[in-house]
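Reply to dn_fold:

You asked what the input looked like. This is it:
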Amino acid sequence: RHSPDSGSTSKTDMPSTNGGFRETIHSKMPQLKLVAFQRPFRKLVKISAGVSAVLCFLYAHCWSSKLSAFKVARSDGAGAMCRAIFSPLAFGGLSKENMMSGLDDGADEMCLWFVWATCCLANIIIFAQDEFAGKHRITDDETEVGDEVVDEDSAEDKNQTPPSPRAGRLKKRLPFINMDTDGPQDTLPMVPWYSVVLIYSVFDLLVAFKVFLGRYDARTMQPALHKREKKDQKESEPKDTRRKSWDRLKSDYSGCLFDMSNRGKWFDFAADTGDGFDSTYQVARMLAQPTITVINDGKEETLPRGQFMVIGGDLAYPDPEPATYEHRFFRPFEDAMQPPPCFRRRAISTRKPALPVKSWKDSDEEDVESYEGPCVFAIPGNHDWFDGLVTYTRFVLGRNWLGGWLIPHDRSYFALKLRCGWWLFATDLGLAADIDLDQFKFFADIAASMNETDSVIIVTHEPHWVLDSEYNAKELAEENLRELMDAHLRGKVRLRLAGDLHHYTRHSPIFSSLSPMSNAKRSVSLSDKEPNKHDHVASANDPELIVSGGGGAFLHGTHTFHKFIDVGESQQKYKRVSAYPDEKTSMGLGWVNILHFRFRNWRLDIIWALASFGIASSLFPLCGIYENYLEQAHDQGPLALFSWLMSTMTSLFLEILLSGRISLFFTVAVTLALYALTDTKPKPLIHLLISLGHAALHIIVSLFCLVLIECLVEWLVVDGIVKIAASLSKRRGKWNPEPLIHGDGMSDLASCLYDEYMTHWSGAIANFTGNLTGHVNNMTSSASSIHDESTMGQMNVLERLSAYLFGTGADVFAWLFRLPVLSSTLYVFDLPGLVATKHYKICEVLCADGAECMISTDLTKFLLIDRKTLVVYLCAIFLYFAIMAVPTAGGVFGTWLAIMLNVFKNQYNEGFSSLRIPHWKNFLKIHIDDGGDLEVFCIGLHRVPLRWKRDPGWSEVGDRDNLTKGMPSWRQKKPSKWIPLNGESKKFQPEIVDHVRISKRSSRQPPANGGTGPKKLRRVSSC
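and this is what came back:
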């Protein structure tokens, strides 16, 4: 280590001769790990599962209870597979009679164990070969990724930092150590919206609207909580009246009004952060770098870090819980740029801004205006309002640092004075979609102190210019905000920024060919659309409308929104001139729901299973359904099968409406839920038809699974696959039990696996319940002798203790092995026989006296059925029903989402939240040039890294060491802790996807005579 006062090297920096290698290993230990065992272990588990499945199939296909052996002869119905596998074993001496000529008797049951042992031995040999070949180790040029080993030389970007020579020598000497550093631990994936989380979010939203909206508004308390003592203005009034007004505003609104005119040349904007770690951290990492290299029209450009950052709401998903804020919002930004050492998570800020920073050297700033480091200003979104702004107040307004960014404001709204006459108004719309009166007065007072040519950027969380036009809102949102813009700002608003929609779009006002334009680059002609005499064209000072909600949340598509929108009460025409991702890409992603919805939202499987089973629950069992199929649709072609299926399901649906109870309840509940879920953009009648059609599909799925399951149950009995006391058939409308007659070539499986085991397999594996009984009795007798008083008197303390423990253990084992463990386990897994037996018993009661009982049944007869029999039957058949209903219902819902997205242009939120896409993120870099023009650069991140490693530059430069020495994290060249696992490849490089230049406001000189003649434009001088 080097002394901070001199360049000499201390003695502690010189490695000793004996312990140098050990110290090196110890210093590297936090970065070392053994080769992960889960990769070869998972491989073994996968192969074992495959072997088990194959052996179960062989047993079901080739075993014959009639022969008590595996079939190897054609006369016994042995197929090619059975003959190929078991014939060589029978020839080799494993026939039933253990003779070479005993093929007619089949192969002995030991053949299956021989096949199993052979597969296991082969698996072990292959595993050993891979181990000796070094396939379970990671070489110098490889990196472990999940279950695979990836060669880093094949990465797209080969300009990576090479491993140190010392690390390479350690790898060669210690090949079992992985020198690659670990990635971030305990990170959270994208929020699974289609799960219980969705129910919680809906509940919280209802509570927020019912409890907080209109009853309690946290914004009204903020001025009172942060009220400062006002100074006497008369004693220190400057001669400049405008400066006097600014001092008075600073005094009145301290904590929400900041002068950034000396440092606001570049600033950043992001919104909708706090979802998955990968996407949020990648955006935060780009914002934290001192400079980033971006692609612009195929060329590389360098853009600096913003001197402050504005976050446009929805800081963490799905709910504003403390753990959610910590893990999904603060953690990624802290890893992107570390906070100062004085930062404590439990600390509550009592004075803002927290300047000077005592743990940083040369930090003597007293206010934000003179602070050189980056700051962050964050407004809340609708998700932050779910708890009435409690968590936002505690974690944002009550803290001083978001990573290395200083948080100076203490209200949920604020105003920033920028350079060259620009202002930024960040509003808090709350749950009422509008600013409150305190905000209105705050922004109106600031507007009164502005110059005539000043320009304003307004930041809101929700882009109501898109949402109101998209949903044809009868009552427009932001009434107070529109009054502020019309009456107080009067054309000063040149740009509006918002998030909430997780993509990037920019709408520009449409100018007519006759109207004057202040900036031709941002004008849009009406030639792209059929002109209408009622269209309201834009004036020269109408604002640009930008939505940038790609700060980390899941992607929203852009193709579901209208290209032309009507804004405000005047219904001014705007056109979408830029979208990221583009409409073609967005539509392609929408179709992914068809195949991927069920797999990406597996947490909903229990919902699909319960809902589908609930719709069909009142119809179980369908006694005689298989016989009905044989009479009306068997061997009569697909058309007859379809006709029979539709007529049967129609009859079942009518039965639900007429006599169903539980099924009717679930049918109505599913229909109402789907109606509430359907987007309200279509007309009411279309909305109703779409909902009913979607519900009808789910009802059809449930009834189809019901018919299929019941046919399979009766087919198992009628065709002799499962033996019961009698088969069930429906003849001439009556239910008649008939003896089961087996023919040649049937599978002939026993209905009870335990009986099959005891008959044929107990010789191969000892039965715990039988073979250990003698041992338990011996243990019990030994324990009894030990507990004898005469024997105990001759023992010392240790012998008595061991004897007591041995006797107690013997009693426990005796109790355990008396339980029918094996028979109970096999009985549970014997679902086909269990379902068939219970099905027969129930149908025997329902179809007594030859009554019709397939669809229409007498409900009073259910009272005669043993409740245990009915419950066991429904629970057993539910497992098979769920296996069929879950993928089918999930596929129906995913297909419905895809069609609604790409055909009807609806369900933008439900359709893309199901995909949870972390890619296509975006944020803004905004620049105010010396001429006073505002440049907006949209930075797009096409791909987000999903695997990370520690940045060697970060570890060598040492955030820990430098912060200890007093160097701020924002001064470091590499402030971020993690970099992509395979380096900064081109697919992760940011790109400028949109760029717009907005000029300052043009003031209009009124006519000299005060008349209504045309106004003359006056050019604005540069700053």
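The two ends are 50 Å apart (CA to CA).
Hope that clears it up.
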